[in-house]
Amino acid sequence: MEEKQCLECGEKIVGRADKKFCSDYCRNAYNNNLNKDSKNLIRNVNNRLRKNHRILEGFPLKEGKTKTTKTRLMDRGFDFDHFTSLYTTQKGTVYYFVYDMGYLPLDNDFYMIVKRD
Q1: Number of H helices and number of E strands within the chain?
Q2: CA atoms lying within 13 Å on the CB side of residue 19
Q3: 51 in a domain, yes or no?
Q4: Which structural domain range is residue 99 located in?
């Protein structure tokens, strides 16, 4: 019978015939290295979305909404390129949402911030 080697470190594998790694550490290291590029992108996008959500949540809302300026959002580090969904009303108004927090571009660089229930 052929002696199997760990895909990560090359050590001899003892155990089941279909076993590919000598330990959980090697299995995790192998899969982390395999997926690190795509996971990096996903992690960066998720971090950006989380930051945008925290920024929107930081504005005090009255009756579920408030107004602010583009400058205030940008000063806090808001990134307008990252949002999770769009909501278009029957009148054609487009709200940009980051999870449950949304914003609506208004005239003169003002924005309406809303929370979806």
Answers
A1: 2, 5
A2: 18
A3: yes
A4: 24-115
Q: How many CA atoms lie within 13 A of 98 on its CB side?
A: 22
What is d(CA 65, CA 44) in angstroms, rounded to the nearest whole number?
28
Low-confidence residues of the chain, pLDDT below 50?
Answer: none
Question: pTM here?
Answer: 0.70
The count of structural domains within the chain is 1
**Which amino acid would we find at residue 22?**
C
Question: DSSP assignment of 55-93, as one string?
Answer: HHHTSPPBTTEEEEEHHHHHHTT--TT--SEEEE-TT--
3-state SS assignment for residue 20: coil
Q: What is the structure's pLDDT at 38?
A: 73
- What is the DSSP code (8-state) at residue 15? S
